[in-house]
Amino acid sequence: MYPPPQxxxxxxxxxxxxxxxxxxxxxxxxxLLFGGVPGGGDTDDGxxxxxxxxxxxxxxxxxxxxxxxxxxxLLRTLASRYNGHEVDGRCVDVVVNSVASGGxxxxxxxxxxxxQDGPKPDVWTPAGTAWVxxxxxxxxxxxxxxxxxxxxxxxxxxxxxxxxxxxxxxxLGWPSKKIGWSDILELANDPNGWARYGHPEWGKFRxxxxxxxxxxxxxxxxxxAYFAATGLSGDLTERDVTSARTRxxxxxxxxxxxxxxxxxxxxxxxxxxxxxSGTAMSYISAVTVEEKSVWDYNQGNPTGDPKTLGDHxxxxxxxxxxxxxxxxxxxxxxYAVLRWAGKEKRAAAADFLKYLREPEQQREFEKYAFRxxxxxxxxxxTTGNGLDPKEPATTLSMPTPRVLDRxxxxxxxxxxxxxxxxxxxxxxxxxxxxxxxxxxKLDLAKQAAINALPQFGPNxxxxxxxxxxxxxxxxxxxxxxxxxxxxRSQLESRINGLIPSGGTGLxxxxxxxxxxxxxxxxxxxxxxxxxxxxxxxxDNNSISLDTLLSDLHKEAGQETVRMFTIAxxxxxxxxxxxxxxxxxxxxAYDSRxxxxxxxxxxxxxxNF
Length: 608
Fold this sequence. Notes:
- The protein has helices at about 70-80, 100-110, 115, 130-140, 165-170, 180-190, 215-230, 240, 245-255, 265-275, 290-300, 345-355, 360-365, 400-415, 440-450, 490-495, 505-520, 545-550, 575-585, 595-605, and strands spanning about 30-35, 60-65, 85, 90-100, 125, 160-165, 205-210, 285-290, 320, 330, 335, 420-425, 435, 440, 460-470, 475-485, 525-535, 560-570, 590.
- The protein is of the alpha/beta class.
- The longest helix is centred in the middle third of the chain and has 15 residues, at about 215-230.
- The termini are far apart.
C-alpha cells in the first residue's frame, strides 16, 4: 500500500519545459485553440510538466515520465497520490510531462537533447507500441542502440475504432452488420455518396484521419488500412505493402479524407461545433479515433480533459464505435524504462508501474473509458455508450520495424494531395526582437515556414502571399509565388526575402486568400489557406469581421476552403482567428510565445 497524503515530505516546486519539434516530420506538440484545452483522444499535444503534488525533500528521487497527452493529466493525478512513497529507503516524486508520441520518438532516436527537447525522461509511455517499434528502426546506431528494451509493459488500453454519427452507422447496418475498411472504400468511391444508402442529403462520404507521422490514431488507422488491403491480420511484409493492389486500396481510402492533422481534437471539436448548430451530419461521416475518444465526445468533452468534463452539453447526434471487421490495433500505452535510467530510478519506475497496475488505479483509468492493462473493458464500455465490450473480434499484430517504416514511406506517396496558400504577415510589428534569440519575430517565422516546407510532397500545389497594408495599390496583400508543384526553392527564396513594414490588413487579406484558393480548388485535393498574423485588423477601410465570417460561411455539406490560422505573438487577435478557422471547419493554432513558432508551423502543415 502507499502512504496517505499527510505522510508525504515537502519540497520546492521545479520549473517545467515543453518539448520542441522535429521540424519536417514529427512534432512534440502545441496548444491547439479550438474551444478548449487539447487532450482528447490521442491529441498528442505538448503540455507542461507536473510541478504540483511534489512530496520529497531535495535528496529524494525524481522520476521523470514523458507521457502521451490523452493520459498525461490522469497520470499526473495518480502521481500526486503516489508521491512521497519510499523505495529502498528514499522518497520518490514522479513528474509527468505531456509529450507527443511521435515527437518523443524522434527526440529519443537522435539522443534527446534537453536544450531542444525538454527534460530528459527516465520513462517513456507513448500511446501505442508502434512508436516503440519505429524507434528501434530509426535510433541512431540501429536497434542495438535503441534506448528502450524489448519488454515494455502496458498500463491501459484502448482500441482504434472508426467513429461515426449514429444515424450514418445505422444506415450502413450497424450494429448488426460487421463494417470495415472495405465498406469505407466502397462508399468513398461511390460518386453517389450517401445516396447509395438512401440519404442523398448527407452528400459524399468524408473521412477524418490524422497524420500517421504525428498521431497514434492516424498511425494505427494507416496500419489497419494496409492490413485490410491484404486480408492479413499478421506477418505483413514489405512486398505486401508495396503491391499494386495494396497501394490502390490505401489510395482509395485516403481520397475520402477531408484533411489530416496532428490531433483528433480538430475533428472532434469541429464536429461538436457543427452539432451545436444542427449540422453534425454534414461535417464528417467518420473519424478514426481511440475508443475512449468516442466516450469523451459523447459526454460533450472532446478534449478528454477530466477538468472540462461536464462543461458542455452532450451532443444531439452521438458517435458510435465501429470496430473494423478486418481487425484493429490497440493503443496499448507501453511503459518503457529508458536504458540511461540509473539503478535507483529503475527501482522507482518499477514501483510506480506496480502502483499503476493495482486495481484501485486501474479503476481510475476505467473512469475515463480506458480498458485495463490486460484489455478488459470497464463499466463505461457499453452499447448504451456507443461502444461494444465484445469487440474487437480481431486484433492485428504490429508489423516489424522495417515494414512499419515502409508503411509510412508508402503512405507519404499515396496520401491525398493539397492546394495550399501560405499567407504571412509582414507588418512592422513582425520586426520586433524576440528576447534571448538575437532574431526578430519575422526571422523566426521565416525559418519555421522554410523548415516545414519538406512536409509537402510532389503532388501538392503550394503558393505564397505576404500582407500588411497597401502592398499592391490599395490591396493589403501581394502574391509572391503562385500555387504550383515542386517549387520549394522559389518559396524558400521569397520567404527569405520578406521585410517587415506597415500595418495589418487582416480582414481583406483573409477573404481574398480564401477566394483565391476557391478559384483554384479541386474536388480531389485538400484546399486550404495557412494564415499567420501577429496582430489585429488595422485597415479602417476594410470589410467588417461580420462580413468576413458571412462570406467565409458555407452551406451545410458544401465543399469549403479551410483556413488554418496561427496567432503569432502576444498581440495576435486570437478570438478572431479562432472564429475564422471555425467558420471554415479548420483549426486555430496558438504561437503567442514566438519561440514556439517552429513546432506550431510544422503542426499546421501536418494537416496536408
